[in-house]
Amino acid sequence: MSPAPFIFSKDGVDLLDDNSAAVWDVVLPGYETSARTIRVTNNSGVNLESCRLVATNGITDSSPDDRFSEILQSGHGNPYPCKDLNNLPITFTVTDAGPPAVVDLLVDGSGWDVWDVTNEAQKSTGTGLTCDGITRYRFAIGTNYESIEFVLSSTFVDGTSYIWISDGGDACRVAMTGETLTTGIDGAEITETGEADGVITVGGYVDIDLALFPSALMTSALNERLFSLRAIGYDVGGVEYSSEVVGSYNVANVLSADLMFRYSVRQEKYYLPRFNAGPDVYIPDGAGDYIEDPDSPGDYILIPDPAPDPMPQRYRQEDSWVASTTGTHVEDEQNPGTYIVLASHPTGGYYTSLTAMLAASGVTFTT
Question: Do 317 and 339 touch, CB atoms closer than 8 A?
Fold first, then answer.
């Protein structure tokens, strides 16, 4: 096997040997992680230009090696993520038993356009694909599987395959170290220091930053999230060189936790308001006042300072008024008008860190 054109490393360790730098155990929906710096080195043996780094949705393939001998996410587009743990069935119609066999490829019973990367030819509706273990094909832009490349095995055995596409790439942010992070799907041009834009010379390197910013709508249902981190460059003749590292992360399911919190409170100090049981009695605090809802014991109504007219019926969380079943609230300084629910703290007081807040509720959190 020829060496990888690009080497991804962290502190001198090749990520192909240890990809922990591209793995997050738990991330919070709606909050950006700190960036991790990864070095990308040109190992191709030639100077490369138009170099880019992309982070796109990762894939897994459930078919045996006698159907697809190779399948990968090329980075030339972003395949559409699955909404559940299933995906469309891939079937084949053998038109020539060979060898090598020739097949038509069908996705959920329909032919999808495929690009013959090896021979630079269009294969309309996926017909006439050669099972030789050499020819590389790529699903066309605009299909659910866009940019996924595959090689059909020379020992092809007919059957049904599935490609599962994670939404993990949607959260990725990338940039050259020191520059503004951009979406991984859009990618970033990477340039060796002192070289023209997009150029990395033989043995040259670029340090890049990788962070995650998962949507607030993400849940833990589709964990583990996968993404493809890929560097792409071209020699003077236009030949493409690229290498990939697969990363992963899990999204915390904060909606079903015993408490809700925002990552922005980490290492901050908040005053926790005290509550009285009477419906018309409350103790003021700096972020607004609370009284118990007389129509729903155990729930609390926020009265901001100054109180609005009419008075809100519940404290505000995200974009809707919701009820609290227990505990106290602190306002999120990063998002005024939104409050964090913590475990019961009847006497009020200070928490000095997110860790302390969690510990008070018997919850531990690791990053």
Answer: yes
